[in-house]
Design brief:
The complex is a heterotrimer.
Chain A (H helix, E strand, L loop, with lengths): L4 H38 E2 L16 E2 L12 E5 L3 H11 L12 E5 L16 H13 L4 E5 L6 H7 L2 H8 L2 E3 L7 E3 L10 E3 L9 E11 L3 E3 L1 H4 L15 H8 L3 E2 L2 E10 L12 E10 L2 H11 L8 H8 L13 E4 L3
Parallel strand pairs in A: 2-11, 3-14, 4-5, 4-9, 5-6, 9-12
Antiparallel strand pairs in A: 3-13, 7-8, 9-10, 12-13
Chain B lengths: L9 H25 L4 H8 L9 H11 L8 E3 L4 E3 L4 H5 L3 H6 L4 E9 L5 E9 L3 H10 L13 E5 L2 E6 L2 E7 L4 H17 L24 E3 L12 E8 L2 E9 L3 H17 L3 E3 L10 E4 L2 E8 L2 E8 L2 H17 L2
Antiparallel strand pairs in B: 1-3, 2-3, 3-4, 4-7, 5-6, 6-7, 8-9, 9-10, 10-14, 11-12, 12-13, 13-14
Chain C lengths: L2 H21 L17 H4 L2 H11 L2 E2 L4 H12 L2 H6 L1 H13 L5 H7 L8 H14 L10 H21 L12 H13 L7 H6 L1 H9 L6 E4 L9 H4 L11 E2 L8 H5 L5 E4 L7 E2 L6 H7 L1 H12 L19 H5 L7 H5 L5 E3 L12 E3 L14 H5 L10 H5 L14 E4 L5 H5 L5 H5 L7 E9 L6 E6 L2 E4 L14 E5 L8 E7 L2 E4 L13 E14 L9 H5 L8 E4 L14
Parallel strand pairs in C: 3-5
Antiparallel strand pairs in C: 2-4, 6-7, 8-16, 9-15, 10-11, 10-15, 11-14, 12-13, 12-15, 13-14
């Protein structure tokens, strides 16, 4: 039987339509399945959580030196006026920087750069001290030295005006200024205040050692600001809410990290009008540098430099109770040195 | 209008019926769903008195006063009985709760009724369990509306134009209508009688005024002050009554303490309080038992102790009135050991 | 039965249940109240809400699973929802029909001609999805289902019910209801320009359906190309999808009028393409989508504005259980269900309080409405279709039971405005806020102080026991016998105060005689002092329910006001530690 051209055409169209229909059925089914699968994968029967579920850190880490040789000094108190010399002698008394920093270590130095005031006003870590510490680190073989703080004033101007940026540059260290991406929430186990609070965890990426370099200052709210109070600079967010319980927050901060080494610079101390000071008459030559592995012991010395007692600065005993260190620093048998002689 | 295709195909019909069937299913589904209450509705229906107060112990006790509020014919309940304990009394009566709490409040139940006899009238009944008869009397006397006539319902009862207030045993009752009328007043009394029939009899309610000499006493001024009588801290549970005597006006006060020593100590405290406020002693030759009187700006005070009873005269306008009342009071107390 | 008849029945059915859901959206157990009526069901069917929230949150909130049913069906038969179910489509179709009664055939054909601008809705869709991708769900502004819910809930029903009182015992008030109503009138009014104007040109949901139905196996088509060209099928075409010529599948709303009208029965709904040719979608230009893609940029710029963060208006109070602002805006579709259900009428559509991207999102206004946020009510979260306001249990809201450790949900904190507060600024006793604080123990407490009143210091007086005669007139404007006023000897701030119990003329009666040394009876000087219980807020207890703000007698700008500080939902708002 011979079909007319028209009939042939019609059959052809019908065949095409049939194929097109099956194709469309296929597409629609595939899409339906895909959407259904997507729905199933994203299905959320409970609804959203009350607060954004972010995995919180439990701390910034323990950087303390594990193995201490028996009889090795944990603390040195150096009298003098030349910061570089005092730091060097102090570190040497503790076994030299080599016993803390190894080859290839990435060292984070936490300074106090809270205010955009010149170093001479004593409100921030002195650049000479920073330079001395950073230099020793490089000498000991550190691959990189980072300097950081989350200051109260504009970070860039803080680092520049205090001279810390210059000192870091000269020593070959890099300043990490705070930016939002560096902050991640931390929830300290058992802590009341540090729950789901942003801290500058990003500055710790790849860091293997931490040295805290702090000035000795009076502090209106906390009584004194030295090593432990310096940790406050790791906090982000609207951290001034914690001023409602300053001793509590500093005690919790003492659990946030364990530093490798603490350098407390009491060459010149801010005796009054802290933490900002502003006048040279607020300062006093106290001619002392503390190098210690124990932040609590270091601060206990600082308290004496300020002419106060532990009762005036409650967080030191509270931090001791929390296990951050030894408030009765004499029990560490500190090495006493005098560089001016 | 354009012509339409005359015949409807079978497929179209079938599809149509299919769609209608789905709509029917949806309707049925919705009707089933509507009977499964939204949690918000369940919470809203529970009513405020039961929410968020998980103290199971007090719920049982609340039933105690609730059960005493009777349903009387002619009174149509408008809402279920609500009960309150010390922790939430202020939810109902707000700032006034302090008055009750200070006087040893235990629990309160209240219910509102519509009154058929008087078009549209509303009546609310409050039944307070104050723990003891003196406590009940304290809140009763503490709020007594001056000038309203006493009622014969109980020993301590009075009526205002729209309400009845009385105590029975440890209970204090308020029956308050939203308007004043005579028919209504009768209905309230009927309700009060029904209520009194349900209140457990705890012996005779002591007439608080019995301790006072009758002559010159203005009866409705007798009240029990639960705390800080006359502004003197610690002078608690003091019965007071005002007198209008020929020689002047004065207030008598009486309180029975556990031991004579306690009564003595409290008398000294009150005298010290008076002295601290600038009262001076006046010579009172011939006063009974040589009790001294104190005066400040024509206001006379006398304090004495008779056995375990602390008593005295407060704010007498004249010395004569003070002496007269003190003597009478003393005699009265001596007669009733 | 003709399919067109079935379509009309279906349209009426969905319109009726839609209206019924709006009627029943009041809290209560009567059959005409909320009970268990699934008042969100029509919103749950919405694939645009589904897609936007999935893009913005990465999750599918359980009740929105219903949209999968609609999506599935659309994939096979096209925009059935527009023709058979959409209540706004039904309203548009009916208005368009009424507006065109008696129009001649040429006029009808002109009205239903396909227009190039019908592509606009696809760009709107792309713009909205771009915003959603960036975390800002704005679909509800023009998505027909939330739009209609909002319009009926906040503008039409309150207006209709104003004199009736059938839906609520007191008239409902909604800020900016006029704008919501005007938008709705605009949408309906556009049907006078062209039938189903909104559906054809604007509706992003319709565009989404068009895209989904791109490969639908079943669709409208002609069996023969040369059918006499009467074009009767075009006269009543609701979608303006050109059934007589090259059929545009994505524009067809399945009104089935063409099939019904064709005198020769040549229009079918079947599994083959139209003999006159077909395209899946109207002409869409890349340029259009690039412009629409600016949505990404717009949302990013909102981020720059930082309205969701620190720069947020502290007066913006979200309903209890609302998510933190960022996640809230990733879910809220502005349907107005929470505003309708709120028994206090305090949840209001925000105009600009929440920023541009927060238009018509729920914001609590304690000055409108009849109370603060009622402690034993959880209605708003329970009716939120997308969990932008989480469905709280009463325990979670009040911080009891399992939630005792978290404490109650805080919407903010009340602040006393000492410049306006009566006892603080005007020496007038007032305790309303403290009395109404529903928190137990109360979050508002008072400290009592005594102040000499104006013109009430060192007044000459004659003292006679409890009576005191003032030589001068009594200072006006205060009821000295109210129990809050006291007398004390002038110049002796430590002297005991005596409460004034009565006033007649210039004679004051005191509860007890004035006690003071060296006070001459006939030439005394006295101060009239007022006892002021001044309110303070215990921020650790305040839940921001606004009972105090609502009742504050300083009726304009209240003397105690709730701000968002310390609200549970945001970490950045944390005020106390």
């Amino acid at each position: 039987m011979k079909l007319t051209t028209k009939e042939q055409e019609r059959l052809q169209t019908r065949e095409l339509n049939r194929r097109d229909f099956l194709k469309r059925i296929g597409y629609a089914s595939a899409l339906a399945l895909a959407t259904g699968g997507l729905g199933l994968a994203l299905y959320d029967p409970k609804g959203p959580a009350p607060a954004e579920g972010q995995k919180a850190l439990t701390g910034l880490g323990d950087f303390s030196r594990r193995a201490m040789a028996p009889g090795q000094a944990k603390m040195a108190i150096i009298r003098g006026t030349d910061r570089a010399v005092m730091v060097e002698r102090g570190v040497k008394a503790l076994g030299g920087m080599e016993s803390f920093i190894g080859k290839g270590d990435r060292v984070l130095i936490k300074v106090n750069a809270a205010f955009a005031t010149p170093a001479s006003l004593g409100a921030t870590t002195h650049p000479e001290t920073l330079a001395a510490v950073a230099g020793l680190c490089f000498k000991a073989g550190a691959a990189q030295v980072l300097v950081t703080d989350n200051p109260i004033n504009n970070p860039d101007s803080c680092f520049e005006i205090t001279g810390l940026a210059g000192a870091a540059r000269a020593a070959g260290a890099r300043v990490i200024a705070p930016r939002p991406a560096l902050f991640a929430p931390v929830s300290l186990p058992g802590a009341k205040l540090l729950q789901n609070w942003p801290v500058m965890a990003g500055a710790f990426t790849g860091v293997t050692k931490v040295i805290v370099v702090s000035p000795v200052k009076d502090h209106q709210r906390a009584g004194a600001s030295m090593t432990l109070k310096n940790y406050y600079g790791f906090l982000g967010g609207r951290r001034n809410v914690f001023h409602q319980d300053i001793n509590g927050i500093i005690t919790e901060l003492s659990q946030l990290l364990k530093p490798t080494l603490c350098v407390l610079d009491g060459t010149v101390s801010m005796m009054t009008n802290g933490p900002t000071g502003g006048s040279l008459s607020d300062l006093k030559d106290t001619g002392t540098m503390v190098v210690a592995t124990d932040p609590v012991a270091a601060d206990a010395v600082g308290v004496e430099l300020l002419g106060r007692t532990l009762a005036d600065v409650p967080y030191i005993l509270m931090a001791e109770k929390a296990g951050a260190g030894q408030a009765d620093y004499r029990r560490l048998n500190p090495v006493l040195l005098n560089t001016s002689a | 209008m354009a012509r339409r295709k005359a015949k409807v195909g079978a497929a179209q019909k079938l599809t149509g019926y299919g769609i209608l069937a789905v709509l029917g299913l949806i309707a049925v589904g919705l009707l089933i769903q509507q009977s499964r209450f939204n949690p918000a509705v369940i919470v809203a229906m529970r009513g405020p008195e039961l929410t968020g107060r998980p103290q199971a112990a007090s719920t049982q006790a609340q039933a105690a006063t609730a059960a005493l509020i009777p349903e009387v014919s002619g009174f149509t309940p408008l809402a279920p009985t609500q009960s309150y304990g010390p922790e939430n009394l202020s939810d109902k009566i707000d700032g006034k709760a302090d008055l009750y709490l200070a006087a040893g409040f235990k629990e309160m139940s209240c219910r509102s009724f519509g009154l058929g006899a008087v078009e549209g009238a509303h009546v609310e009944v409050f039944l307070y369990d104050m723990g003891s008869a003196p406590n009940a009397f304290a809140v009763f006397s503490g709020q007594r509306r001056s000038g309203s006539p006493s009622s014969s319902l109980t020993a301590n009862a009075y009526a205002t134009t729209n309400a009845l207030f009385f105590t029975q045993g440890r209970f204090y009752v308020e029956i308050v209508a939203d308007r004043a009328s005579e028919t209504l007043q009768k209905s309230l009394e009927a309700y009060a009688t029904a209520l009194l029939a349900k209140i457990p009899a705890e012996g005779e309610t002591k007439d608080a005024a019995a301790l006072f000499p009758k002559e010159g006493l203005v009866r409705e001024t007798v009240r029990l002050c639960a705390a800080d009588t006359f502004g003197c801290e610690g002078l608690n549970n003091m019965l007071t009554g005002e007198y209008s005597l020929k020689s002047g006006k004065a207030t008598a006060f009486v309180a029975v303490r556990d031991t004579p020593e306690l009564a003595q100590a409290e008398a000294r405290r009150y005298l010290d309080f008076l002295a601290a406020n600038g009262y001076r002693k006046v010579q009172t030759p011939g006063s009974p038992g040589d009790i001294p009187a104190l005066v400040l700006d024509n206001s006379f005070e006398m304090v004495f102790v008779e056995g375990r009873t602390l008593a005295g005269v407060h704010d007498a306008t004249t010395l004569e009135a003070a002496l007269e009342l003190a003597a009478k009071l003393r005699n009265e107390l001596k007669e009733k050991p | 039965m003709r399919i067109v008849t079935v379509r009309r029945i279906s349209q009426i059915f969905f319109l009726v249940i839609f209206l019924w859901f709006c009627v029943t959206a009041t809290l209560g157990a009567n059959w005409w109240q909320l009970r268990g009526w699934p008042i969100n069901w029509i919103l749950d069917l919405d694939p645009l809400t589904f897609l936007a929230t999935v893009l913005a949150t990465g999750t599918l909130y359980a009740s929105l699973t219903w949209a999968l049913v609609v999506i599935g069906l659309t994939l096979f038969v096209g925009r059935f929802f527009c023709g058979f179910a959409c209540p706004l489509g039904t309203i548009n179709q009916a208005t368009g029909w009424v507006a065109r009664r008696g129009l001649n055939l040429a006029g009808r054909m002109e009205a239903n001609r396909h227009r190039r601008l019908q592509s606009l809705k696809y760009y709107f869709l792309a713009f909205l999805l771009a915003l959603a991708w960036m975390g800002s769900v704005q679909t509800g502004i023009i998505d027909p289902l939330p739009l209609l819910h909002r319009s009926v809930n906040l503008a039409l029903f309150p207006l209709a019910d104003n004199g009736l009182g059938a839906l609520s015992d007191e008239p409902r008030a909604y800020a900016s209801a006029w704008l919501i109503g005007v938008v709705f009138l605009g949408v309906v009014g556009l049907n006078l320009v062209l039938p189903r104007f909104f559906c054809r040109f604007i509706c992003p949901l319709g565009a989404l359906f068009g895209l989904l139905g791109r490969f639908s196996p079943w669709r409208i088509g002609k069996t023969e190309d040369n059918c006499g060209d009467c074009q009767i099928c075009e006269h009543y075409c609701e979608g303006a999808c050109r059934p007589s010529g090259t059929f545009i599948g994505g524009e067809c709303v399945l009104c089935m009028n063409c099939m019904n009208r064709c005198p020769a029965g040549r229009v079918t709904f079947a599994g083959f393409p139209s003999a006159a040719g077909e395209v899946g979608l109207p002409d869409l230009s890349r340029r259009g989508f690039i412009v629409a893609g600016a949505g990404l940029l717009v949302a990013s710029m909102w981020e720059v504005g930082g309205l969701a963060g620190a720069g947020r208006d502290p007066g913006l109070i979200r309903p209890p259980g609302a998510l933190d602002e960022g996640r809230f805006l990733a879910r809220c579709i502005r349907c107005g269900q929470c505003m309708r259900i709120c028994p206090g009428n305090i949840i209001q559509p925000a105009l600009l309080e929440a920023g541009v991207q927060g238009l018509w999102t729920p914001a609590v206004n304690y000055r409108i409405g009849r109370s603060g946020c009622q402690p034993n009510c959880i209605a708003c979260g329970q009716v939120c279709p997308t969990a932008a306001i989480r469905p709280l249990s009463l325990d979670e809201k009040q911080g009891t039971g399992d939630f005792a450790a978290q404490g109650p949900i805080r919407m903010g904190t009340a602040f006393v405005d000492r410049g306006r507060c009566l006892p603080w600024a005007m020496d007038r006793p007032c305790l309303v806020c403290q009395e109404l604080c529903p928190v137990s123990p109360k979050a508002i407490f008072t400290r009592t102080g005594f102040e000499a009143i104006r013109d009430g210091e060192a007044l000459q007086a004659r003292v006679e026991g409890s009576g005191v005669d003032l030589e001068a007139a009594i200072p006006a404007g205060a009821n000295l016998a109210s129990g809050d006023y006291y007398l004390r000897p002038a110049g002796q701030p430590e002297a005991a105060l005596r409460r004034i119990t009565g006033v007649s003329g210039t004679r004051l009666t005191l509860e007890r005689p004035l006690a003071a040394d060296g006070l001459a009876a006939d030439k005394a000087r006295v101060d009239i002092v007022v006892r002021l219980a001044r309110p303070f807020v215990d921020a650790a207890r305040c839940i921001g329910c606004g009972m105090c703000e609502h009742e504050c007698p300083v009726s304009g700008r209240r003397a105690i006001r709730v701000y968002s500080e310390n609200e549970s939902r945001s970490r950045s708002g944390r005020m106390l530690i």
